[in-house]
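Ticket #4471: complex job returned nothing on first submit. Input attached below:
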Amino acid sequence: MSTIETAPDFTVLVVDDDHDVLAANARFLRVSGIDTLVAETAESALQRLQQHTVDVVVTDLRMPGCDGLEFARQARLSRPLMPIVFFSGFATVPDVVKAMRLGAVDFLEKPIEPEELLLTLQGIRDRYDGAIAAQRIAFGVSDETASFKTRVLAYEKYIIETSLLKHEGRISDVIDALQINRRTLNDKMLRLGITRFTED
Amino acid sequence: MSTIETAPDFTVLVVDDDHDVLAANARFLRVSGIDTLVAETAESALQRLQQHTVDVVVTDLRMPGCDGLEFARQARLSRPLMPIVFFSGFATVPDVVKAMRLGAVDFLEKPIEPEELLLTLQGIRDRYDGAIAAQRIAFGVSDETASFKTRVLAYEKYIIETSLLKHEGRISDVIDALQINRRTLNDKMLRLGITRFTED
DNA sequence: CGGTTATCGGCAGAAAACTGCCGATAACCG
DNA sequence: CGGTTATCGGCAGTTTTCTGCCGATAACCG
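Support reply: We reran it on our side without changes. The output follows.
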C-alpha cells in the first residue's frame, strides 16, 4: 500500500517455460510499447507479482512443475481481479472451462501470433482499463476494511465512469448502454460525485 | 446441512433440438429427482422461462436458427444471474471462451453422459460457487452488454460468495466483515440464489 | 433433559431508491 | 431570432430495500 502511484503504465507479465518463444514475444511486446516482465517458472512469476505492479498476466497452461492453473490460483490470492490470459497448444474443453472459471479473460492457442497477443493485450488495456482501477477501488481499498455498501457504491461509480469514458461523456449513450433510467443515473452521479468532465 | 430436508424445488430447463436425446436426458433427470422442463427451440425455451421458475438452464451451443449464445443472452435479460450450462459436440476453444464469458458455469461435451449431467446439476444445486461467473458478468471484458442492475447484482453476489468462502461459510463472520445487517444479508442471499456450502 | 449458539424467515414500519412529469438551462443551427 | 437537441434538477407517487423484533429450527454440550 505504499506509494506505487506515478505508474499509469501498462505492465504485462508473460510466463512461459520455452525460453526462446518467451524472449521473442517479450521483445515484440516491448517494441510495441508495452512494459513486459518475463518469468520462466511459476515460482519466479509469483515473485515478480510481489515485486511489481502487474496489470495483466499471460501464462502457458502447461508448464513443468507447477501448471498454469495452479499458478493462477496462487496469483489470485494476492490479485483477485487481475486479468489472466492463458495459452496452450493442446487445450481440451475442460482445460478452457477450468481456466475461465479461474477468471481468465481469454484463452489463446499455440503457436501464438505476436500480433494476436498484442491485440489481445491492447483490448484488455482499453476495455479493462476501468476494471484495473476497480480492482484498486473495490478490492484494493477493501481488504477487509470496506463494507459491503462501500464496495457496491465504488463499483457503481466505476461502472458509470467507465461507461462515460467509453461513450465520450454522452449521457444518452450511457443510458442506452447501461439500461438505466435517466433520472436514476443523474441521481447516482450526483450521489457518487461523478462529473462528466474529468481529467483527459 | 448435509442433506436437503426441506427439498427446495430445483427445476432445470434442458434445451436441445435433438428430440430423442432430449427426451432421454429429461427422463433420466426426472427419475433422479430433478424437476425437468424441456424445449426444442430457443423460442419455446424463452417462453418456458417466463412461465416457470427455473434454477438452471442446460442448452446446446449449436441449434438451428437461434444459437445457444444468443439464447443465453436473451435469457439473461429476464434472469440475470441464472446458471447456464452449455454443451456441444464440436466446440472450439473460442466457442468455450465465449460461452464462459457469457457467464456459463460449465461446458459439457457431446455425447452427454446422463450421469455426468446429473452430477453437474447436483453440483450446481448443492455447492455451486457462482462467484466467478458473477465476476465475469460484473467485470465482463467482452462485448457483452449487461445492464447496470445486472452488473451490480453480479458484483454483490461475487462479494458475498467470496466472503462466504473466505470465512468458510460462517454467516456471523460475513456479517462482521461486510458490515451488513443480518436480515439484509439473508434476503440478498435468497434473492441472488446463494446457498451456503458445507465445510470443505 | 435444559441451555447455548448459530442460523433462518415472517412481518411491518422506516428508509431509500426508482421513475414519470414538468420546467429550466445551455449549446447549436439555420 | 426561433427551433432543436441534450442535459439537469425539483417534485411526488410508487416500488423496493433495509432493519428491528419475534419466534422457529437445528446442532451441540453438559
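Residues 181-184, 187-188 of chain A lie near DNA strand C (CB under 10 Å from a C1'). Closing as resolved unless it happens again.
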